[in-house]
Every structure is written in structure tokens, then in C-alpha cells.
Design goal:
Helices cover about 30% and strands about 20% of the residues. It is of the alpha+beta class and about 200 residues long. Strands 1-2 form a two-stranded antiparallel ribbon. Strands 3-6 form a two-stranded antiparallel ribbon. A hairpin with a 6-residue loop joins strand 1 and strand 2.
Length: about 200
């Protein structure tokens, strides 16, 4: 038996929104997915441009795959929740603990910068997340350490397939965790290298 979780109304709305967005921005590609937050079921999924399955040979070969499951994406600022969740869950800090957040912060031979300057001050974990501060999250990552960060990266499913049962699913980027190695931890579009 085959059981589909696609909601036809949501699917149509998603496709229309993507089409309008492409027209408005003159984008060459657009994609989106709607998930049930309780079950993880896919309610709608679309990638544009589409192809006609009855005449697939007339299409650009790149449109024949589903980029939502086969392509690898850098998570950017959405990754900031990972070190924060790890630190709070492990009782290393609470959402109300503060970190001093300048506009730039040196880590080894790298300098972490904010995308936009802000008033340099002590900020709570909640404020750091609300403001999406690279420097604050970098300090949080250093406080929790690379081993705990790696544990949560894998616990939250990074570097693994989801089991969605669609062809060509990528498992994403794996994190190396051998003693003496370094792991690149993506923190809001910057690469922070933490040494073991």
C-alpha cells in the first residue's frame, strides 16, 4: 500500500507562491517544502522549474532531480539553534545567561564579524538568538566545546539521511570527530573551526 501525506490545497498554494516569487524576483529556481511539525510528514513539496514526466528528455537534466532532498545546503543562521540548544539542554547555561557581544571576535586566526553593527554590550542567550549574532553564538560554541557540539549536530540529524524514501537523498555534510582533528561548525554563514 502507498500512503501519501501530500495535502493538495497546500501543494497548490506552495507551487503558486513559488511561481509568483520567481516572476517577482526573476529567479531561475525556487523550491519549498511544508512539513507537519508534529509528525515530520511532508504536506507539500515543490521545486521549480518543473519538467513534464511524459517528455522528460526535452528537459534540462538538472530539473529531473529533486533538489530539496538531493542537494546539500549550508544551514546558515538556522544552525545557531544547535549550540544554543546543546548548552541549555546540558545545563551549561540558561536562556537568561549573558555574553559580551562586540561586533567582531577573534578565534585563532579567524575573525568572526556581525553582518550588521550593533551596540556592543552583554546580551542574554535569548537576545543573541533573536538578533542572530554571529559573535554571541561563536562564544557559545566555544563554551560548550567541540565534542558536545558534534554530539548535538548528529543527534539533530545533520550529516545523515532522513529516511524520506525519495530517490537521491543526500546525507549532507559530515563532521569529522577524530581526536586531534578539527571540526568545521557552521555558525550563521561563517566557519568556526574548533580544535579537539
Amino acid at each position: 500500500n502507498v500512503y501519501l501525506t501530500i495535502d493538495l490545497n497546500l501543494q497548490q498554494a506552495l507551487e503558486e507562491a513559488l511561481t509568483k516569487g520567481m516572476e517577482r524576483t526573476l529567479a531561475q529556481h525556487a523550491m519549498g517544502v511544508v512539513l507537519d511539525t508534529q509528525t515530520g510528514e511532508v504536506l507539500a513539496m515543490a521545486a521549480l522549474p518543473e519538467f513534464n514526466p511524459n517528455e522528460f528528455w526535452k528537459s534540462d537534466y538538472r530539473t529531473l532531480k529533486n533538489p530539496l532532498v538531493s542537494d546539500v545546503y549550508e544551514p546558515g543562521s538556522t544552525f545557531k539553534v544547535v549550540p544554543i540548544a546543546a548548552g541549555i539542554n546540558e545545563s551549561i547555561f540558561t536562556k537568561d545567561d549573558t555574553f559580551y557581544c562586540p561586533n567582531q571576535f577573534a578565534v585563532g586566526n579567524r575573525v568572526i564579524r556581525e553582518a550588521h553593527n550593533h551596540v556592543e554590550k552583554n546580551m542574554t542567550i535569548t537576545e543573541i538568538l533573536m538578533e542572530s549574532l554571529n559573535v554571541g553564538v561563536a562564544q557559545i560554541g566555544l563554551k560548550i566545546g567541540p565534542r558536545l557540539l558534534e554530539k548535538y549536530i548528529y543527534a539533530l540529524g545533520f550529516g545523515q539521511t532522513t529516511g524520506i524514501e525519495l530517490p537521491g537523498e543526500s546525507k549532507g555534510i559530515e563532521v569529522a570527530g577524530e581526536p586531534g582533528a578539527t571540526i568545521p561548525a557552521v555558525v550563521g554563514g561563517i566557519c568556526l573551526v574548533l580544535a579537539f
